[in-house]
């Protein structure tokens, strides 16, 4: 059995002290150990930005790809080897701006990967510009007079797009975050875990204190049923999306892999790729 | 008796023009004739003139012919637009329904045959194309039985009576035409063919079959003309072999998903045309710097932007060689026949894994969509080589917290490769410059070491690639060397005997490895010629520029065509004569 320490490597993250991403890194390491996998069975694919560096900070197979494209790369990895646990990760700019098209389509495609977004409502690595998650009026280097575009409601959007697993957490709550990532990994299909992960350097509005004041834990809502899609939508709208916990899960929704004709349980990567002569002759004969 | 002719069927798009040509040529292919087809179509589904021009011959003839012997018309527009191609003594067979008329000055012989009416009498006007096939066959002296097996295969699912009715439609078409034309036309009777069984396929079929045979098991792709047939074939076939196709949201997803699958150890490809390739450029760079194998098919069509989406062009050459920012080792292969498209696609997967680089297989619309007879492909020529991909048992134990040296600097620049899931293989992969373990590094010393390592991987590729140039060198001292790429091979081959009969000594080279450019191989050819003429379907002479750059030679001239149509043999003949 691997412990969370086995998922640690000797690379020192280049995040700012106090960055919310440290907890996300720790939560992934703990969740991986908790679900009982070993480091070589985990592939972490990440995008570009401060948070995108996370794939290099976990002792597992890691792929740090292109800005906005962690999801298609991760889906390719999973299709090639369904025995792997595949986590895609990145920031809110990565997933909800440049990569938004992939996010929505990964949701509706429903390949069994877990997507962890480190959502800080700002662009960090480019030093403080507005993000699609920034609220109207948010002042940044690229919106000196305040943002005049509205913020995306990504949880609502995910549910509307047919997501089978939607959760949201706060990087200060390592226990809940770890548990949600674990559940996401165990969910048979695409799982979205959005994490409020404050940027202590550039976002002076959405701070740790701000989140503590504004976030509502779903555990405090009496009778909340994460399998009730309508309730999930209502609660998100009532709280401007600022809720934490498992928001919605459809345990019956079949994964993409389970619906692919001829797709075996065994990893595609370990199957023999050479054709037999008879197979080839049959294929050739079809063109005669 | 004649040994080759050109036949064209035309009408409104969506009217069954394609299937008319398909049935006609499939039957002739089974008799052992060599077929070569080129479809003229527009970027719409219903309506608009479309035609299918088919070459029938007792010898291989892989070019659109200069002229036309027989024109089958389903509307007057087909006659008006195409009659000028007809030879003196050529024949037009039109559907009586539209009362076909000969345009002024047209010397062809016109027959009106009631395609629609005969079909309706047999049950449905849908069979009018079979009546047209019957009339054509009567002219060629091909018996109705030749169509039996083809009709059976196509209509088997609809039942025996549909098969029977369609055969009847062919026979009625034949009878009507024989009666109508008796004694009034020239000789269109084809010499008997060799009766050998050949494949009949488009370039895209060969690429798809090559991918499957070459071990590709995953294809993410986005539909586009003229590439979609590749994904459509693999959607049908891959499930039998455990693999699958995903239709992605765009070409960026297609390319990056293919990178993900290749990284995880599955041979994976994507295919597109210019617009899609433009979207893939960033991902191609990722494949280059992360040394992840990748195979991309670019079926060139008219550019730029949406350009001429259903027309012939060869204008992506520069983009494929230079595309992506920064510098990576990359391979661009350009098959020039359907057969080569099959073998080269397999080779593309081998090179991608052996050298751990992106490989682009460049075709053009005429090659990708032109349907032609192909000698049966040889299973014994298929070899799969996965390069330095390691097996689990080969991996030594790693020190705690150590990463596998995935990017170890080696003499040939190629490092051992492991895939996720392997114990003792953990390493990091990043599009950021990195060290031997894949960890980000900005150190100048490391940068030079890794850049040099990547770039030297292809040092020997031009010699490792089987026949980087197709050579037809008839003369030690030629007056002219004609160079081309992709689908112009058959056209140039057809122009050469005409030039030679004028007393010119002509050699021919067709570049199959576009990048890295096979300098020595091409130089050995240019040295034997007084002049070099490069034939290409673009406006700026891209291949000629590459040759000038690589060979530092001044005697290179261009013949260019960029009106959306393939070259005709006569155009090459005439322009070569003009340049000399």
TrEMBL record, chain A:
Thiamine pyrophosphate enzyme TPP-binding domain segment(s): 48-195
GO biological process: cellular respiration
Domain of life of the native organism: Bacteria
UniProt keyword annotations, A-Z: Iron, Iron-sulfur, Magnesium, Metal-binding, Oxidoreductase, Thiamine pyrophosphate
Keyword Acyltransferase: no
InterPro entries recorded: 2-oxoacid:Fd_oxidoreductase, OFOB, PFO_beta_C, THDP-binding, TPP_enzyme_TPP-bd
Database matches in Gene3D superfamilies: 3.40.50.970
Identification of the protein by name: 2-oxoglutarate ferredoxin oxidoreductase subunit beta
From TrEMBL, chain B:
All residue ranges annotated as the Pyruvate:ferredoxin oxidoreductase core domain in the record: 478-571
Domain Pyruvate flavodoxin/ferredoxin oxidoreductase pyrimidine binding: 210-451
Domain Pyruvate/ketoisovalerate oxidoreductase catalytic: 14-174
Molecular function GO labels: oxidoreductase activity, acting on the aldehyde or oxo group of donors
SUPFAM superfamilies listed in its UniProt record: Pyruvate-ferredoxin oxidoreductase, PFOR, domain III, Thiamin diphosphate-binding fold (THDP-binding), TK C-terminal domain-like
Domain of life: Bacteria
A biological-process GO annotation: response to oxidative stress
Pfam families given in the database record: PFOR_II, POR, POR_N
Keywords assigned: Oxidoreductase
Name of protein: 2-oxoglutarate ferredoxin oxidoreductase subunit alpha
């Amino acid at each position: 059995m691997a412990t969370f320490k086995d998922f640690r490597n000797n690379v020192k993250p280049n995040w700012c002290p106090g960055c919310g991403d440290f907890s996300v890194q720790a939560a992934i390491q703990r969740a991986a150990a908790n679900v009982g996998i070993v480091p070589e069975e985990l592939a972490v694919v990440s995008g570009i930005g401060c948070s995108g560096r996370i794939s290099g900070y976990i002792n597992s197979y890691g792929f740090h790809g292109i800005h906005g494209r962690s999801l298609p790369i991760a889906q390719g990895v999973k299709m090639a080897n369904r025995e792997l646990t595949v986590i895609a990760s990145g920031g809110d700019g990565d997933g909800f701006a440049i990569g938004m098209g992939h996010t929505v389509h990964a949701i509706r495609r429903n390949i069994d990967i877990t997507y962890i977004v480190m959502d800080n409502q700002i662009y960090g690595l480019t030093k403080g510009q507005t993000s699609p998650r920034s609220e109207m009026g948010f002042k940044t280097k690229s919106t000196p007079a305040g943002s005049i575009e509205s913020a995306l409601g990504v949880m609502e959007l995910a549910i509307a797009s047919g997501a089978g697993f939607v959760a949201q957490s706060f990087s200060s709550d390592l226990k809940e975050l770890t548990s949600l990532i674990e559940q996401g990994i165990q969910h048979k299909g695409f799982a979205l875990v959005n994490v409020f992960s404050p940027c202590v350097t550039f976002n002076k509005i959405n701070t740790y204190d701000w989140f503590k004041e504004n976030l509502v834990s779903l555990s405090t809502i009496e009778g909340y049923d994460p399998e009730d899609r309508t309730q999930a939508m209502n609660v998100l709208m009532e709280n401007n999306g600022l809720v934490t916990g498992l928001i919605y899960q459809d345990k019956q929704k079949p994964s993409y892999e389970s619906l692919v004709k001829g797709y075996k349980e065994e990893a595609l990567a370990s199957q023999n790729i050479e054709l037999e002569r008879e197979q080839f002759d049959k294929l050739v004969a079809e063109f005669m | 008796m004649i040994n080759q002719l050109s036949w064209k069927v035309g009408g409104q798009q969506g009217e069954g023009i394609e299937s008319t040509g398909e049935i006609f040529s499939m039957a002739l292919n089974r008799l052992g004739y060599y077929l070569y087809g080129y479809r003229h179509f527009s970027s719409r589904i219903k309506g608009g003139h479309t035609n299918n021009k088919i070459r029938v011959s007792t010898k291989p003839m892989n070019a659109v012919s200069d002229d036309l012997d027989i024109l089958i018309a389903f509307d007057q527009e087909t006659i008006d637009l195409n009659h000028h191609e007809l030879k003196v003594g050529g024949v037009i067979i039109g559907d009586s329904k539209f009362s076909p008329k000969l345009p002024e000055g047209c010397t062809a012989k016109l027959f009106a045959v009631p395609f629609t009416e005969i079909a309706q009498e047999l049950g449905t006007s849908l069979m009018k194309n079979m009546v047209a096939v019957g009339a054509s066959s009567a002219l060629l002296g091909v018996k109705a039985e030749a169509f039996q097996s083809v009709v059976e295969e196509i209509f088997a699912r609809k039942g025996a009576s549909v098969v029977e009715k369609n055969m009847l439609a062919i026979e009625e078409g034949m009878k009507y035409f024989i009666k109508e034309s008796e004694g009034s036309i020239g000789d269109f009777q084809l010499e008997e063919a060799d009766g050998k069984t050949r494949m009949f396929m488009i370039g895209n079929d060969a690429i798809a079959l090559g991918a499957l045979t070459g071990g590709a098991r995953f294809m993410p792709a986005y539909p586009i003309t003229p590439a979609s047939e590749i994904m459509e074939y693999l959607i049908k076939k891959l499930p039998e072999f455990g693999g699958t196709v995903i239709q992605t949201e765009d070409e960026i997803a297609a390319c990056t998903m293919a990178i993900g699958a290749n990284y995880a150890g599955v041979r994976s490809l994507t295919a597109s045309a210019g617009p899609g390739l433009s979207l893939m450029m960033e991902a191609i760079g990722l494949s280059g710097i992360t040394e992840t194998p990748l195979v991309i098919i670019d079926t060139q069509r008219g550019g730029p932007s949406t350009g001429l989406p259903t027309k012939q062009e060869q204008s992506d050459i520069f983009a494929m060689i230079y595309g992506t920012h920064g510098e990576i080792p990359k391979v661009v292969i350009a098959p020039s026949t359907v057969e080569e498209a099959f073998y080269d696609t397999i080779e593309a997967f081998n090179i991608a894994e052996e050298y751990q680089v992106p490989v682009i297989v460049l075709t053009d619309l005429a090659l990708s969509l032109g349907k032609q007879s192909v000698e049966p492909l040889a299973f014994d020529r298929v070899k799969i080589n996965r390069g330095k991909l390691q097996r689990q048992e080969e991996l030594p134990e790693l020190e705690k917290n150590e990463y596998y040296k995935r990017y170890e600097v080696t003499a040939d620049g190629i490092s051992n490769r492991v895939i996720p899931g392997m114990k003792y293989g953990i390493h990091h992969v990043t599009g950021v410059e990195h060290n031997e373990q894949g960890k980000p590094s900005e150190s100048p010393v490391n940068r030079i070491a890794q850049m040099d390592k990547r770039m030297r991987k292809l040092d020997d590729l031009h010699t490792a690639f089987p026949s980087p140039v197709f050579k037809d060198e008839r003369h030690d001292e030629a007056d002219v060397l004609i160079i081309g790429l992709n689908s112009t091979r058959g056209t140039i081959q057809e122009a050469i005997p005409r030039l030679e009969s004028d007393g010119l000594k002509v050699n021919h080279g067709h570049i199959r490895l576009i990048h890295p450019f096979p300098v020595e191989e091409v130089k050995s050819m240019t040295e034997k010629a007084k002049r070099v003429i490069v034939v290409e379907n673009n406006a700026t002479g891209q291949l000629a520029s590459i040759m000038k750059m690589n060979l530092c030679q001044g005697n290179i001239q261009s013949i260019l065509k960029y009106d959306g149509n393939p070259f005709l043999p006569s155009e090459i003949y005439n322009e070569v004569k003009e340049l000399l």
